[in-house]
Structures are given as structure tokens and as C-alpha cells.
Amino acid sequence: MVNYFQGLNLMFSNSLFSSYMDWFHGFNCSLLFGVLVFVFCCFFLLISSLFYFKFKKVEYQFGELMCSVFPTFILLVQMFPSLSILYYYGLMSSESGLSVKVTGHQWYWSYEFSDIPGLEFDSYMKSLDQLDLGDPRLLEVDNRCVLPVNTNIRFCITSSDVIHSWSLSSMSIKLDAMSGILGTLCYNFPMLGVFYGQCSEICGANHSFMPIVVEVTLMDNFKNWCFLLMD
């Protein structure tokens, strides 16, 4: 089936996993479009034929069989790509080289590196008078979450008050942060760069003012950043 919907809504291109998710999203949209066209054609043919009237005695065993086989075939078509994505995600979560605890507050994020004692900080959105040249408005923060490249990282996400959602769309990351519940997410950032996200759960009046900024850098730069932050 031709994937007409790939890249239409989900502009994922920053990792192999996010590219898989983008393709799978487009594949499901194309499959759903094909199903809708098929159902519409069957409905039109049914109305325009004599079989529409109830006084016609027609056996519908074949139709009932197709109504059972056709959905099963659709599920089988969806099963194989979804299992491959789950398998790829399992490779990333097999072992973690770094653990980061992310806590949502009203309305900012706090980060704690569990493997590095004393390394924790809060991340607030920069106001307009704090922005530097080139900083995106309503997306830049005062303290970025700096992470090493090509390292399996385990995120432990929770909340201190209401429900938040730690979302990084360009990496296909989204996990709700709920008070009293510790959600885990494993990920491997394959490329250098600065990636922006936002809380995608309506958590109050300043919901749209708690952005997420993840800066992926080399391991040596990450170690230097840790030393500077802890001094």
C-alpha cells in the first residue's frame, strides 16, 4: 500500500525510532483510508442493488465470513510493523547507562541525575527580556537538560502536583507525569543537537509556559557540563 500520509502531520526525522513511528503513523492512515473507501463502495452498491430490500431472501453467509476475515487480515497487516517497532524499542531499553528523574511542577520541570550525586536543577522558561539572539520564544529555558549522545538513557518521570506530560515530539517521546506514579522511558539519542518540546497535558493556567529543552552533546562535553553545574 502506498503511504500517502507519511510526513503529513508527524515531522519526525531526528532518530531512526522516530522515523519508524512516522512511517507507521502514515501506514495506518493509508490503511484506514483504504478501509473507508471500501466500506463506502460496499454501502453504495448495497443501496443501489435489489438486495437492499428486505423481501428478497438472500443468504448472507459469505458476507458474514468476509466481515470476520477482512478485519482479521487488517490486524495481521498492522501486527508485523508494530512488533518490529516494539522490538527496536526493546533494544534501547535493554540496559541504561544514565538515569534522569524528571519531575513536573506548576509550571516548570526539575531534573535529577540519579547516577551523579548532587546534580539536580530546575528548568524555567526564559522571559522575553532574557532571550538571546536566535532563542525561540516560549521554548527556550534557563537550564537545559544536557545529555550524552549514543547513550541509553532511562527517564523516570513523575509529578509533584497535577498531571503533566513530558513530550519531545521530534524524538517521538511522550509520557504522562502523574503524582505518586513513577513512569519510566528508555531512549538513545543518536545525533547531536538541541531539541524542543512542551508539556502536552492541560495542567493549569500556565500550561503553555513550561517548555522542555534537551541538548544532546558529546560525552566529554557532558562531563564538563556536569562539573561546571556542580561547582
UniProtKB/TrEMBL annotation:
Residues 2-93 form the Cytochrome oxidase subunit II transmembrane region profile domain. It holds the Pfam family COX2. One of its GO terms (cellular component) is mitochondrial inner membrane. GO terms for biological process: ATP synthesis coupled electron transport. InterPro entries: CcO_II (IPR045187), CcO_II-like_C (IPR002429), CcO_II_C (IPR034210), Copper_CuA (IPR001505), Cupredoxin (IPR008972), Cyt_c_oxidase_su2_TM_dom (IPR011759), Cyt_c_oxidase_su2_TM_sf (IPR036257). Its EC number is 7.1.1.9. PANTHER family: CYTOCHROME C OXIDASE SUBUNIT 2 (PTHR22888:SF9), CYTOCHROME C OXIDASE, SUBUNIT II (PTHR22888). This is Cytochrome c oxidase subunit 2. The lineage of its organism: Eukaryota, Metazoa, Ecdysozoa, Nematoda, Chromadorea.
